[in-house]
Fold this sequence. Notes:
The chain is α+β, with helices and mostly antiparallel strands. About 20% of the residues lie in helices and about 40% in strands. It starts with a helix and ends in a 12-residue tail after the last helix.
Amino acid sequence: MCNVLSALVLVLGVASMFLEKAQSCGGYDLEIDYMRNCDSNNVIELSNNFSVSLSKDCMLEFNGCVIAHEDITSAEVEYTVHKDGVSRSGKKDGCQQMGDKVQDFEIAVELLGLPQHCPVKKNTLCLNKKSVDVSKYKLRMNLLMGHISGKSMMTSDGGGKTCTEFSAHVVNRVAKAIPGRHYIPVIG
């Protein structure tokens, strides 16, 4: 559903290398505190059982459904992402972003069966156990270590809104074995 939906699922997916505690690729655990709709009247809604996990063989696995309750021809997305005390906020045209071709993003959207352009029709898309291989990023997992949270608010052309938020931790498995540690500090 519109790039907004695609971006939402991927942002949640990447950030969600966290929800159900899983020993994951490159020696990291993904622990998701929550991933949820933050408005009961969302135009695009994640099903109650929507989840993302990272397997030991570096597959980002999606489960659950994404429901578009109305047709969307344009969408503006405001977002804020926090990573260990640093915040980044912005505003993007969701459909325009969908048109910008970013190789890995485009491949993931296609593999998940998500719409690749606007308009997006009213629809329910279930991702039951669809997965995307992220093994080429396992050496960069240390950059994601720590607490990551975010919130996005999409406004569609019909005036409807969609609010989604998440909170997760990427944890080094070795450091986690040390009581009170979730990461190994870098000195130098």
